[in-house]
Amino acid sequence: MDAVDKILVIDDSPVQTEFLTSILKPDYEITACHTAEAGLRTAKEGGFSLILLDVVMPEMDGFTLLRELKGTELTRYVPVILLTSLTDIQYEERGLLLGAVDYVTKPFSPVIIKARVNAHIQLYHYQMQFRRQAMVDELTGVANRRRYEEEYPVRWREAIRFGLPFSICMFDIDKFKLYNDTFGHPAGDQVIAAVAKTAASYFQRSTDLFARYGGEEFVALFLGSEGRTAFEFLKTVRQAVEELHLQHNSPVSPWVTISVGGVTVVPTTEHSPEEFLQRADAMLYDAKNFGRNMVVWCDESHRQLRER
Ligand SMILES: [Mg+2]
């Protein structure tokens, strides 16, 4: 990590924030806020590796703010160290229960503050790295199924909120078992990785999600395209995979190919997202039955589109 870590200090006493800033400034970038409200706004701008939070402040206190921070997706994982004076030592337990990682009592020892801050920032980086790794498929480097399962309901709700068409598709590599039997599993792994890399390059918008579902199966979500456009788009992806010209020994093609099944819907709260994954899967099943190396799509009017 080359960039300097940012720390947010929230304390109603300017003397305290200046003191903390002078201790930490040489190693970190410090932002100070003197009310909980300003602290919350600033925290939500993101980018902080640690928050130092005073417990006793007028109006909104540190506990209320801590609860807000832990309940907000963007700030949930940022470690919070509570600043308490000896008189509010009975609150420490409450703070830790609310999700603070640590507390320091005033008056501060600069050495102790520095040591705790350094330790928690390091832990924060390990945790973030672990979270990223836990969401990535090791073989292909694309999102894994866990990430897909976490994101699917989020994207679905976004589509409902913005009234956007939502598309989901599933695809898999044709005759993959035959490939493995012919060329061996290590070669099979390379094919999965190559197909994933090519397909992933088509799903680059921030609202797209492309993930390995398992084995030689992939899933993609994207927002804002009408059914016909989504269908044409996946035909491009299908073609790009075939044009990798990865040798196969299958009745479908001399090359490695994919079959794609997808559905586009303008979702409402009446729909359930699971129903659409099943429909995409049914379209994939049709693509297999109609000869593979093809895209089968169900559009918003329940028309089935089917082409190579
Ligand atoms: Mg105070």
Plain-language structure description:
The chain is α/β, with parallel strands linked by helices and 308 residues long. It has 2 domains: 6-133, Rossmann fold (3-Layer(aba) Sandwich); 145-307, Reverse transcriptase/Diguanylate cyclase domain (Alpha-Beta Plaits, 2-Layer Sandwich), CATH 3.30.70.270. It has helices spanning 14-24, 36-44, 62-70, 92-97, 110-134, 145-162, 176-183, 185-200, 227-242, 273-289, and strands at residues 6-10, 29-33, 48-54, 80-85, 102-106, 166-173, 209-214, 217-223, 258-265, 295-298, 304-307. Magnesium ion binds next to loops.
Q: Give the ordered list of helices and strands.
A: EHEHEHEHEHHEHHEEHEHEE
CATH topology of the largest domain: the name is: Alpha-Beta Plaits
Q: Mean pLDDT across all residues, rounded? A: 93
Q: What is the β-strand count?
A: 11
CATH superfamily of the largest domain: Reverse transcriptase/Diguanylate cyclase domain
The number of helices is 10
What best-fitting shape do the alpha-carbon axes yield? elongated
Beta-strand share of residues: 15-25%
Class based on secondary structure composition and strand pairing: alpha/beta
